[in-house]
Amino acid sequence: MSTNITTARVFLDGLLEAGIDWLFCNLGTDHATLIEELALAETQGRSMPGIVLCPHKNVAIHMAGGYAAISGQGQGVLVHVDAGTANAVMGLHNLLRARLPVLLMSGKTPYALHGELPGARDNYAHTMCKTPLTSAPW
Fold first, then answer.
1. Which residue from 54, 111, 131, 132 has the fewest beta carbons nearer than 10 Å?
2. CA distance 2 to 128
């Protein structure tokens, strides 16, 4: 058994500590390390957030919102970077209006292989989700 603590493990442990018991996910290649850590945790009998696989990002964000509405406890949404985040952001806007707590997370676009600058995609997902608190409607 390895004694190495991975960033993925710290991330997932942190979600549990924050009260996120479930991740509503539309997983992809940017989540490989998290998937590996979840599998390892299962074999070791360690607690990790439960995973609800969703066929689309809109399904994931709205299922998490439904969970928050029923339970009063916010949960996490994990989607692809770039277009996946863009799909989920529209649902996040609805959840903001309804004041439902959901943590939207995505991967990060990989850096270029040959030293060129990362594409515009690299910062695109981050700018979609930035909303100053002063602009909230309430």
1. 132
2. 38
